[in-house]
Amino acid sequence: MPTATAIAHPNIALVKYWGKAPGPGNVPAGPSLSITLDTLVTQTRVSIADRDALYIDDAPAEDTKVRACLADLRAHYPIAPLRIETSNNFPTAAGLASSASGFAALVTAIDHACDLGMDAATRSRFARRASGSAGRSIFGGVVALSGPEWTATPILAPEEWPLQVVVAITHAGRKNVSSSVGMRLSERSPYYPAWVASTAADFTAARTAVMDRDFSRLAEIAEHSCLKMHGLMLATPPGLLYWNAASTACLHAIRALRETGSDVFFTMDAGPQVKAVCLPESTPRVARTLAEVPGVQRVLVAGLGDGARIIES
Ligand code: DP6
Q1: What domains are defined for the chain?
Q2: CB contact at 8 A, 90 and 43
Q3: What is the DSSP letter of 6?
Q4: pLDDT in tens, 48-94
Q5: What 3-state class would DSSP assign to 143?
Q6: Which of 26, 296, 47 is nearest to 172 (CA)?
Q7: pTM (predicted TM-score)
């Protein structure tokens, strides 16, 4: 039976995607820029089978987004029924971008198992249609996702700027409001038009800061994009509040670290975990400090990783 196993890593957006263009195809309302991590991994094995079946961590599962992704692929390629077995080495659906690595690994494994012959841009487009951020996890290092094609493109390879990320886990449960639902709700925020209109300038400025390896400038842009997105969320009736007390304490701790000489900035997504992006010399101090913030359950450290790839077939 044809089989393929792929791995992919989550990515963390420094300029956020939060909002969809009208119409079908899960087209983002604005561009985004991310870094792909290395130590966090989704592994997905796909085998041709008698009927479709999904297993997450060895347990049978149902997932409407996986179903939709398979339907989308089958509208373009002849694909047999598939057995899909997937697992993460980090908390799922907790604001750690498990859907990004999940769909990047899934599309990559299906392409290989079914011999579809997709190039990376095509895999990125199908992954993005399944979950916007997943289009970026096809690639490693620093990655951009912008129109008009809305397939991701790599900007820097991991070794070209070896940033590190300390993830402070403040609550490992599943989030209450998924990103897809939260984005739709945010269209009702009075801030939504301003958010969409201002994202292109953040994206262009962040891309320039990355090309220049200008950490301080990237710190300003990324913290602004993050806080602007959370401002939009807070102003979304009845209020999308993903932070807890420990998240807020981590944000203050990271700013205090920066004021006392560490090269670090924060970002957060649709969950209470805090991601501290560091230059490598600053990582040990940042990790030590965040581990001691009350309410932080544990910290994970990652460098920049590679894109989705086949590890066995
Ligand atoms: C806050 O990619 O999970 O992490 O396209 O609806 O599946 P869907 O959304 P998703 O949203 C990610 C939102 C974010 C910011 C980002 O990764 O850019």
Answers
A1: 3-157 (3.30.230.10), 160-303 (3.30.70.890)
A2: no
A3: E
A4: 999 999 999 999 999 999 999 999 999 999 999 999 999 999 876 55
A5: strand
A6: 296
A7: 0.97
Phi/psi of residue 191, nearest 5 degrees? -85, -10
Enumerate residues lining ligand 1, CB below 6 A: 13, 16-18, 26, 32, 97, 99, 131-133, 179-180, 183, 269-270
User: Are the C-beta atoms of residues 95 and 268 closer than 8 Å to each other?
Assistant: yes
Ligand 1 mean position, distance from CA 31 (Å): 12
From residue 196, alpha-carbon distances to 17, 115, 162, 257 in Å are: 9, 38, 30, 31
Q: Ramachandran region of residue 267, left (φ > 0), alpha (ψ -120 to 50) or beta?
A: beta
Q: What is the pLDDT of residues 282-310, one digit of tens each?
A: 999 999 999 999 999 999 999 999 999 99
Q: Which atom of ligand 1 is nearest to the CA of 95?
A: 4
| Measured distance CA(111)–CA(92) in Å, rounded | 24
